[in-house]
Specification:
Length: 291
């Protein structure tokens, strides 16, 4: 953004020391570029919720070496499937990831702004934020969208990453006001979250490996799709599978479709004999185990 005088020089704002926050800088000099700023003001109850695509269910679960996040691929617009292959899980930086639920357009803007915020901080300060600092920065972005959320255009992401200080995966959830809550073991957001959390509650174990944790997340999305029409199950005909990402000591990586396809095939095959999914083990009944 050079000056208009033909010199090619940057405006003084770009050369003045200030906050390490990209969002604060943008808010001071080009607030119209912030997520949600381009939407016209409407009264509560007369918003765009029914005509804007919405992303749905995201799940996350920790395992011994990190954390897995997975999202279905469906976006809905009212009772219509707006998109079948939307990507709802994104790397925020090298060791953290964010999954989006809610108004898809605003959510994508928020993710891009969050990515820039973390990159900008690292360049200015010469160090990365702690995972708690990243979670707090995302909270600020969500709070800035509160006016639109009250008009039906809510964005409620799920944030997870690997904590290099504590050597473990951590999960954070939010509400529309920007409230941040650390979750333990597993969590889910979106329209199918109630069903997904119920599924993970039965499947989660402390000793899960990365592969088993990814499978549990796919099972949870499958259960959510079984009961929530806005959550899309795996599309075997179009080869559209859940998006699954892992954050561990080596950083964030998205699992390839070939690997997820194998997991989905195992899940689908098992559902032929048990349509409701794996059964949890009950102990202590008549002195033995009951399945």
């Amino acid at each position: 953004m050079a000056l208009d005088d033909g010199s090619g020089a940057l405006p003084a704002a770009f050369l003045t020391p200030g906050s390490a926050s990209f969002v604060d800088f943008l808010g001071s000099h080009r607030p119209e570029l912030l997520p949600g700023a381009g939407y016209p003001s409407v009264t509560t109850g007369q918003g765009y919720a029914d005509v804007s695509p919405h992303g749905t269910t995201i799940v996350a679960s920790t395992f011994a070496g990190g954390v897995v996040m997975a999202g279905d691929r469906r976006a809905t617009m009212g009772n219509v499937i707006a998109q079948r292959d939307i990507e709802k899980v994104h790397a925020a930086d090298a060791y953290s990831m964010v999954g989006i639920a809610g108004t898809a357009g605003l959510a994508m803007e928020l993710v891009r702004t969050f990515q820039l915020e973390l990159e900008h901080y690292e360049k200015i300060e010469g160090a990365t934020l702690s995972i708690l600092g990243k979670a707090n920065r995302l909270s600020t972005l969500i709070r800035a969208n509160l006016a639109m959320a009250l008009q039906g255009l809510a964005v409620v992401p799920l944030f997870a990453g690997y904590d290099l200080t504590e050597d473990r995966g951590r999960i954070f959830s939010y509400d529309v006001t920007g409230g941040r809550y650390e979750e333990h073991d597993f969590y889910a957001v979106g329209s199918g979250s109630m069903f997904a959390r119920g599924s993970l509650k039965k499947l989660y174990r402390d000793e899960l490996s990365e592969q088993r944790c990814a499978q549990a997340c796919v099972e949870a999305l499958f259960d959510a799709a079984d009961d929530d029409s806005a959550t899309g199950g795996p599309d075997l005909f179009r080869k559209i599978y859940p998006l699954v990402a892992v954050a561990d000591v080596d950083g964030v990586r998205v699992l390839p479709d070939s690997e997820i396809a194998a997991v989905v095939a195992d899940v689908v095959q098992a559902r032929y004999t048990s349509p409701d999914g794996p059964k949890a083990t009950l102990t202590g009944l008549d002195g033995g185990d009951e399945r």
